[in-house]
Design goal:
single chain; alpha/beta; Rossmann fold; disordered N terminus; globular
């Protein structure tokens, strides 16, 4: 039930954003990353999204993406995958999202880039086995009602030696269950990191600009919901990160190559 309600909410959210975001101001939908206010080098046109871009940069640079086939599951409005495509130089990029309006937006907004965008379900990927080197999943998996199915599908579509990179938040009492699913998935956990403080730093630094954007595109009666969704400073979502009721996690998972025995 919770998952169905969440999916309905996100469909309505994408529908609303597609109606009001005429200038494509919203291309990222993550909380961002910052460490001691350090900023990565970005083109001038990308600087308005520097904190969400920095999250993708931090996640993706855990592996060597150059020349690789990359899939993002839960690509949203495509800003993260576009960043990876333009700055980290993979061979191919494919974005997949459940929401049709997000995919329509991506196909239109990034038509000048070499990419593929597909509508699909993260828990039932309509993609060939052993077809990607890296699968990325940012702030999406917390909405999956069967995280084990997603992990099985990610494992299937990755080539041996490939990587699954997950960045997402969980309630404290949900982290144990997530870790148990990861242990049963067949992946080797190469890295696990709690980056809550870095997400909070990004949220604090970006709150003023985020609230200005919400005021620009949202009617007055929706601004409170918009701030809560974006976790601007002082909102219940933001405060859950402060109290560590929410923790923001990064996982680097490896699909181990099959052992070859010689006789």
């Amino acid at each position: 039930m919770k998952d169905r309600i969440s999916n309905v909410f996100f469909r309505l959210l994408y529908w609303y954003i597609s109606k009001v975001d005429k200038k494509s101001d919203i291309t990222f939908m993550n909380y961002g990353y910052s460490k001691d206010k350090h900023e990565i080098l970005l083109h001038e046109t990308d600087k308005k999204n520097k904190y969400p871009a920095q999250l993708y940069d931090y996640v993706a640079n855990n592996v060597d993406i150059m020349g690789k086939d990359v899939l993002e599951v839960g690509c949203g409005r495509g800003g993260g995958l576009s960043y990876i495509n333009r700055y980290l130089h993979p061979k191919t990029v494919t974005g997949l999202d459940l929401n049709s309006k997000a995919i329509i937006f991506c196909r239109k907004n990034y038509s000048g880039e070499k990419n593929t965008f597909l509508q699909g379900n993260a828990q039932q990927l309509n993609l060939e086995s052993n077809s990607f080197d890296v699968v990325i999943n940012v702030e999406s998996s917390h909405r999956y009602n069967q995280i084990n199915k997603f992990l099985e599908e990610a494992y299937r579509v990755l080539r041996p030696g490939g990587y699954l990179l997950i960045a997402d938040f969980r309630l404290n009492d949900e982290i144990k269950d997530l870790n148990e699913h990861l242990l049963k998935s067949g992946f080797k956990v190469q890295r696990k990191e709690i980056i809550t403080k870095n997400v909070l730093e990004a949220l604090r630094l970006s709150s003023d600009e985020t609230e200005k954007l919400i005021q620009k595109i949202a009617p007055r009666f929706m601004r409170g919901i918009g701030k809560k969704f974006a976790a601007t400073e002082g909102t219940p979502t933001f405060n859950k990160f402060v109290s560590h009721e929410f923790e923001y996690l990064l996982y680097v998972l490896n699909k181990q190559p099959a052992v070859q025995y010689g006789f």
